[in-house]
Amino acid sequence: MGLVDLFLVALVPVLKVLLVTGVGLLLALERINILGPIARHHLNLLVFYVFSPALVLSNLSETITLKSLTTLWFMPVNILLTFILGSALAWVLIKITKTPPHLQGIVIGCCSAGNLGNLPLIIVPAVCEEENSPFGDSSVCSTDGEAYASLSMAVGAIYIWSYVFIIMRVYASKNTKHSTTNDSTINIRSSGETSETLPETEALLPSREQSYVDDSYQVELPYAKCEEKVPTFKKITQCVKVFAGQMKLKMLFNPSTIAAIIGFVIGIITPLRKAMIGDSAPLHVVISSVYLMGEALIPSMTLIIGANLLAGLQRTEVGILAIIGIIAVRYVILPLLGIGIVKAAHHFGMVGSSLLYQFILMLQYTLPPAMNVGVISQLFEAGESECSVIMLWTYAVAAFSLTLWSTIFMWLLS
């Protein structure tokens, strides 16, 4: 297949995302106000509690087996590498651009955490449906692609609410220490604006009508505990214990993650699989109904992404060099590293021969920042507007970078 054909295959899904995202942005404008704060609040809840878990459960239960796990084990490792490499590059970027302290956590979050669920769930099935797709039969490709993307979403959510959450909290604690208050705790509350939040925000933050501070969102800062003059190894051990004790289990085990666990159980346990998977299965109607609800995820999530980007149309303190640096990290350096890592993993037998699976592993290195980074910045009330501006520009550039890199990935694999 020629390079031009591959470019067209990669371009069409991205254009679909852009068009639907544009509709979401249009519907969020004050003059139209169909996707205003209240509407987004309820749509966020539906996506977070119903649509997303339904699609994850139905896709994983249908495609995951004991045999497939021999290949899929590398995906969590691959995603962890995207976070670690992104964090290291962000640290270099902070030193080069001299990013202000209150924005350093956001820069690290944007460079390390990619949109590992929503965009792959949109792009991969759309690529499979194209006539010139290099991934074989469209129905098989779509089913497998949605399963891979669903697993990516679940694993990504765990890393974001553990790895990224801890890093951004540490930087927030440093800023708090140097502020006028000497209190060793920070109260985390909802800003009341759902225009900058994704479903995870609405599920984890107090509702718009609540004016009190929920005790479950009072976080004891680890900064003071980790600053004592003790041996290095003991200091690291103390910090790890503090961080582990402060992880929010309800953030890690969100509905999509729980649905992924259930999907794994159904797919792996043979009696359950025979009872629920397949046209002749006695309980097939259950999985079919769950999948029907899950089909609403992609259009709903894309509209929400567009509506949430509206907050980025404002002036903030974020510098142009920081934005350019984040774009360079996410769309130039990480994709190049991803090609080398996936190719090496395939060479040493850690990744199977599935071209679609290798494509998704490479795609995970070139995605725009996860919207949950904005959610975390809201939790700590630090740099919310700057984060919205970063999201706006990175998602605008993503339209071109995703098309280009998808074309390159398919060319390398075909």
Protein architecture, described:
There is one protein chain. By secondary structure, the chain is mainly alpha-helical. It has helices at residues 3-27, 37-63, 69-72, 74-97, 101-112, 118-129, 138-177, 199-204, 232-246, 249-252, 255-268, 270-276, 284-294, 297-308, 320-347, 355-363, 372-379, 384-413; strands spanning 185-187, 218-220. The protein has one domain (3-167, 249-413): Up-down Bundle (Na+/H+ antiporter like fold), CATH 1.20.1530. Strands 1-2 form a two-stranded antiparallel sheet. The termini are close together. The model is unreliable at 180-227 (pLDDT under 50).
Alpha-beta classification: mainly alpha
CATH architecture heading: Up-down Bundle
Number of helices: 18
Q: What composes the largest sheet? A: 2 strands, antiparallel
Helix content, binned percent: 55-70%
| CATH top-level class | Mainly Alpha
Instruction: Count every beta strand, where a strand is a DSSP E run of 2 or more residues.
Output: 2
Share in β-strands: under 5%
Radius of gyration: 21 Å
Membrane topology: Multi-pass membrane protein
GO biological process, one term: auxin-activated signaling pathway
Transmembrane segments: 6-29, 41-60, 72-94, 106-127, 147-168, 251-270, 290-311, 318-342, 348-367, 388-413
Protein name: Protein PIN-LIKES 3-like
